[in-house]
Structure formats: structure tokens, C-alpha cells
Amino acid sequence: MIFETFALGPLACNCTIVADETTREAIVIDGGDGVDEVLRRLAALGLRARYLLHTHAHIDHIGDLGRLREGTGAPGLLHPADLPLYATLPMQAQWLGVRAPAVVAIDGDLLDGDRLHAGGVTLDVLHTPGHTPGSVCFSVAGNGGVPTILSGDTLFAGSVGRFDLGGTSLEDIVHSIRTKLLDFGDGTRVIPGHGAATTIGIERTRNPYLTR
Prior knowledge:
The protein is α/β, with parallel strands linked by helices and about 210 residues long. The chain has eight helices and 14 strands. The chain has a single domain (about 1-210), classed as Metallo-beta-lactamase, Chain A, CATH 3.60.15. The chain has helices at about 35-45, 60, 65-70, 85, 90-95, 170-180, 200-205, 210; strands at about 1-10, 15-20, 25-30, 50-55, 75-80, 110, 115-120, 120-125, 135-140, 150, 155, 160, 190, 200. The strands form three sheets. Strands 1-2-3-4-5-6 form a six-stranded mixed β-sheet, with helices on one face. β13 and β14 form a beta hairpin. α1 runs parallel beside α3. The longest helix is centred in the C-terminal third of the chain and has 12 residues, at about 170-180. The termini are far apart. The model has no long low-confidence stretch (mean pLDDT about 95).
């Protein structure tokens, strides 16, 4: 399996490319703020994007979906509960003082329990509302049976996502983490939407929002 995570844009959003080494099919997660770099990495690795997935509809995670879709030909998917937030991209851009990207039609829904494939890569969708109503995390089956969770802005190393930017509540975020993420084993790696990677075990025992 090919697995690459790299930060994009002024807010350093973590984008992840997961791909099958044999078929060269790839899934791109949160590639919405650095189209040129995503395309460069796909080309350098000889990969073809099958899906463009987005953990939620904040501008740094999905803003340039239209351009990325044009460059890859892959469909862009989002949880439907975040469609109203996605429609506010021009307002989000105004808040940040950046160019407003185009709001484009989403190609399909990401729903809790969905399973997506790219060659031999398997990715499961976990609906984790709180940071936004349609926030999702992804579980990627790994070699040896140990998965990796791509947690978007739901769970960070030592913290959790904000809920005052179009979200619901801190209680919802914590509930989502407890019921959807903490069921995974302690050795499960977590790659958040920003910042350093962590593990479920570390967050279970040290994250102040989960231990109080």
C-alpha cells in the first residue's frame, strides 16, 4: 500500500493519498487546498485517483474540489449534512481574506458505514458529527490488520475540533469520538486534519477532553 500525508495551503491542512501498489488506483482525502501539489504527487507516483473524499466542508479541506476534479477526473464525495456549509465557501473565503473558490456540484454522498475500494485498498466511512454536522472520519485497513484513522478535524493529538465554525457542540464531538473512534485498538494510528499524528491509545489515556 502507498500511504502519503502532506500539509497543504496556508492552514496546513493534512492531505492523504492512499493507493494500491499494483493497480495504481488512489483515494485522495482532503486535497482541497493545494491542487497543483496533489496532482504533482499523483503523477510522480504514477497513480490515478478513483475518489476525492472530504472529511468536512471547511474551505481548507474542500475549497478547490472543482479544480482537483478537473485535473483527475475523479468524483468528489461529501457527507450530505455538510452541503449547507459547503454552499458558504464564498463567506468562508471572505473570513480568511482569500480568493473565493467555485462551489461545484458534489458527485455523491459519504454515509456512515460506506465502504470504498481502490484496487486492494479498503476505506470505511465513519460519520462523526460535532466539528461540523457532516464531519466524517475514515478507517483505512492496513497491512497486518492494524488500521489507520484519518480523523479530519474531529480528533487531534491532545485535543478535539472546534464546534463554533459551523459545527454542533463539544458534547457531540466527544460523543462521536467515544462511540466511533475509541472502539479501535490502542495501536491504531490517527492522522488528523492538521498537525502531528497520534494513536488511539495515547488519546484514550492522555487527551484531556476524553479523560475528564
